[in-house]
Design a protein that fits this description.
Blueprint: E1 4-8, H1 12-24, E2 29-33, H2 41-45, H3 52-55, H4 57-65, E3 70-73, H5 84-90, E4 93-96, E5 102-103, E6 116-118, H6 119-126, E7 144-148, H7 152-162, H8 175-184, E8 188-192, H9 204-209, E9 216-221, H10 238-254, E10 263-268, E11 271-277, E12 284-292, E13 298-308, E14 311-314, E15 318-319, E16 341-343, E17 346-348, H11 351-354, H12 360-377, H13 387-397, H14 404-414, H15 426-436
Helix pairs in contact: 1-12, 14-15
Length: 437
């Protein structure tokens, strides 16, 4: 019997779970139910526009979609155009793979001031996500920005803000975003974290990029880089070795000369935000200075200090969005599951499964584990019509469902120029499809 599977979301984790099943059960029929007309999720809208090498994984994904039995049902929103429960009725298995696109909140005073954004919104804006095309987050004459968080997303945001047009020439940064950044001419970006350099979550490749910027110098603030890792970190393990490399990079920053660079990225450690300050719009962030105990955990000292800012981006993590009728842990921001199984024939992969952690390659083994569980548990039901039933339901509703062929029409328009210019409007995407017919 042929398995019929619906995957909610056409990003990496969803593609990998389908790939895992198709490798062992080639006759499996998989429909990707995607809210936007475009597939590839996190790769398209999460990876920084100047990381084109990372985005080349899309070439592999396109080959996967060209397989028999794989369909894209784009421009279909689960929970609005169709429910999870209806999908469960018509497919042998339903997999939630819609990622995590809601920003975690700091919960401190002033978080609603103009000029304070979460990284999910800010990154989506500079990656031309249709939901954020009208955001306009950068004040025209902004000179300073603060990015709160000590992970790779914080580095991405800081790097994009200080790179010149020449440095971004090979990126797919949208013209309107480039204009906004150039008009602002931000010269100081602070990356602030409540922990110290040893505890930072940067990875070596991302951190190393800050030392290669043409116009910006990385400067360590608020902490001294130790000569060696503390004893509680096991350097025989991969995580310990990574921290050792990160410290080496920090040390290299302390030896760098300005050499005419007119911008600065301040790596501000041991600083915990307590309030956003300003009248109507953000003007500064108030921090409490922290200190570390023997285990590397930060505690407050009671000392407060302010750092001026025209723009603040909080990059402290993401939450998944709940779906009607599906169990959801509001505190953790993900779907409770046992190795990917939520209940009945409903599964979850990616950030909705384990929380917003890991990179694109991390999703592959994680999704493969869930694909094996699906194959072990699910028996094909000949009574379930799969895509045929869903096609009729959506047609009866008048939904404008887009296909993978339609995506290729969008892709052709976006790649007419030397560097991709993403279409940031669903209506314009649908118009491009119509023109191609």
């Amino acid at each position: 019997m042929t398995l019929k599977i619906a995957v909610i979301g056409a990003g990496p984790s969803g593609i990998y779970v389908a790939e895992g099943v198709k490798k062992k059960l080639p006759d499996t029929m998989v429909d990707f139910i995607e809210r936007l007309p475009t597939p590839f999720g996190l790769v398209r809208f999460g990876v920084a526009p100047d990381h084109q090498g990372t985005k080349k994984v899309i070439n592999q994904y396109e080959k996967f979609f060209d397989q028999e039995g794989i369909r894209l049902l784009g421009n279909v929103e689960v929970g609005k155009d169709i429910s999870v429960q209806v999908l469960q009725e018509h497919y042998d298995a339903v997999v939630i793979a819609n990622g995590a696109r809601e920003d975690k909140k700091l919960g401190i005073p002033g978080e609603d001031l103009d000029g304070v954004y979460g990284s999910a919104a800010f990154v989506s804006w500079y990656n031309s996500h249709p939901d954020y095309k009208d955001l306009s987050p950068i004040p025209e004459h902004a000179k300073s920005a603060i990015v709160i968080g000590n992970g790779n997303v914080a580095i991405d945001v800081a790097r994009i803000l200080v790179k010149s047009a020449e440095e971004m020439a090979d990126s797919d940064l949208a013209d309107h975003t480039r204009i906004a950044i150039d008009n602002a001419s931000i010269s100081d970006v602070v990356i602030a974290g409540r922990r110290g350099p040893v505890e930072a979550s940067f990875t070596p490749p991302e951190l190393r990029e800050l030392g290669k910027l043409e116009h910006a110098l990385p400067v360590i603030e608020g902490a001294v880089i130790p000569d060696e890792l503390p004893s509680h970190i096991d350097t025989s393990q991969p995580a310990g070795r990574i921290k050792g490399k990160v410290l080496d990079i920090f040390r290299s920053f302390t030896e760098m000369k300005r050499d005419g660079k007119d911008k600065t990225i301040h790596l501000q450690f041991l600083a915990s935000p307590t309030a956003f300050l300003g009248e109507g719009k953000v003007e500064a962030v108030q921090f409490e200075r922290m200190e570390l105990n023997e285990d590397g955990k930060p505690t407050g000292t009671g000392e407060l200090f302010d750092i001026p800012a025209d723009l603040v981006v909080s990059a402290i993590g993401y939450y998944s969005q709940p779906l009607e009728g599906v169990p959801f842990d509001e505190q953790l921001g993900r779907y409770p599951n046992e190795e990917g199984l939520i209940k009945d024939n409903l599964y979850v992969v990616g950030w909705g499964k384990r929380g917003p952690s890991g990179t694109i390659p991390t999703n592959r083994p994680c999704s493969f584990k869930t694909s094996q569980i699906i194959m072990d548990q699910v028996i094909a039901d000949p009574a379930k019509q799969g895509g045929a039933a869903i096609d009729k339901l959506l047609a009866d509703k008048g939904s404008k469902v887009t296909t993978f062929t339609d995506w290729k029409a969008i892709d052709a328009v976006e790649t007419k120029t030397e560097t991709r210019q993403k279409i940031a409007s669903v209506d314009e995407m649908l118009a491009a499809i119509e023109e191609a017919i």
